[in-house]
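I have been asked to look over a protein record a colleague put together. Alongside the sequence sits a line of tokens, each denoting a local backbone shape. Please read both lines and tell me whether the tokens look consistent with the sequence. Take the sequence as given and treat only the tokens as open to question. I have pasted the whole thing underneath without changing anything:
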Amino acid sequence: MAVHDSAIRHLLHGRTVLVTGADGFVGSHLTETLLAYGADVHVMIRPSSSGMLHNIVQLRKLITVHHADLTDKESVRQTLAELKKAGSSRPIIMHLGAQAHVGESWRRAYETINSNVIGTLNLLQTIQDVKLAPYKISFAGSSEEYGNVNPETKDQYRFDRSGGLILDEKSPVNPQSIYAVSKLAGDFLCRNYFKAYGLPCVVARKFNNYGPRQNPRFVTATIITQALVREEIKLGYLGSRRDFTYVRDGAMGHIHVALFGHPGDVYCFGSGKTIKIADWLDLILTIGRELGYWREKRVIYEKKRGRLGKSEVDELRVDYAKLNRLTGWKPAYSREKGLKETIRWYAENKASWLGRVDW
């Protein structure tokens, strides 16, 4: 079934949508998209966040800001009580707030669990406590939940003719990091609260978004930002394969799941194509040269930049057929188009990211 744009606008126009993590990378693009559809967007921002409204400051007059921390249940309660008091008719809650970096999850393990697991629990329980009646609660899951193929359950996986892994909602999960475990916990908490209390939770399990405003610590952004200001690019392991999805496609994936997903279900979305990091690097460098942003670059491999121990995830590629059958969602951006927009943004907005690099 193909969902027409008018159906999305009809469901969103004037409807209250609360976005946690709205000032983050994906959250900021989602917030922009929701506003474009006429939604009444409320955002939850940590009052102590040093990056408060860093990515959505230009939207400040168009949104309602609630200063709350997901790990502080009382501040979550105050936010949801305000939402209910405002008379919002069946609001949508899109929960993207999280510590989102795999490497950081090992350095900040307790913070990752507190933000991603306790924060999700606080949100769900408080929705139940204040008797809010949302239209839908959408949780941002992650492809990292799948991890690597478990040899003991290999017969439960799908592979293409060349042996490439294909992941969907039925594939086994096998998380390889604290971040992945925290996302899987939030994923299951949402489905538990649907079964126990009937909260209309859906899980939007996204695959590797990239695009403007992404933190330079993530691989696509670190390649681009290093290429813009350095002669050498230092990277870690380049042999893994990823399903890179342009963030605007990702934002629409979140919206399709939130509006049309069946409560209690999981929906995966991504480009549906896998590419080795080494080839992704070559593609980025080629496009940047063609656009005139840099010349030839030397690439240095540093083993210390890889994931801890044996925790590297080898391959992530999605089959988004379930969401496509339900709504018609599919990616609109090619790799080349998405990368051109991304490179241009970093080249034209250096002040937005130079202070955040840690190469």
